[in-house]
Specification:
mainly alpha, 4 helices, 0% strand, elongated, Mitochondrial pyruvate carrier, transport
Length: 119
């Protein structure tokens, strides 16, 4: 350890206070973790993960009705997330991905259907 005459680096109290203040701002923000605006998008990522896992599923086992519903609700909720106050960009992002995975599987179904019709 240094002796009493060794200069000490400046205190990081201001940095710690600023980071604590930012954390507190995030926690108490209108779209922070105390609100549904935070938790709804966080939980909705499970739908995206499920859609991505279905990529390896045979196309005949992919549900058309389910993917129509996912694509439609993803598009509707993505639009809605820009109409509410506060604007919820995380909700918009997850819903764009929900819509995209639904549309991807519908395109797979359509491609398989066209292949069987032409054969």
């Amino acid at each position: 350890m240094g002796d009493a005459n060794t200069p000490r680096p400046p205190s990081n109290g201001a940095v710690a206070a600023a980071s604590t203040s930012r954390l507190r701002q995030f926690i108490n923000s209108p779209a922070g973790p105390k609100t549904i605006f935070f938790w709804a998008p966080a939980m909705k990522w499970a739908l995206v993960i499920a859609g991505l896992r279905d990529i390896n599923r045979p196309v005949e086992r992919v549900s058309t009705a389910q993917n129509v519903a996912l694509a439609a609700t993803g598009a509707i909720w993505a639009r809605w997330s820009f109409q509410i106050v506060p604007k919820n960009y995380s909700l918009a992002t997850v819903n764009v991905f929900v819509c995209a995975t639904g549309l991807y599987h519908l395109a797979r179904k359509a491609k398989a259907y066209m292949a069987t019709r032409s054969a």
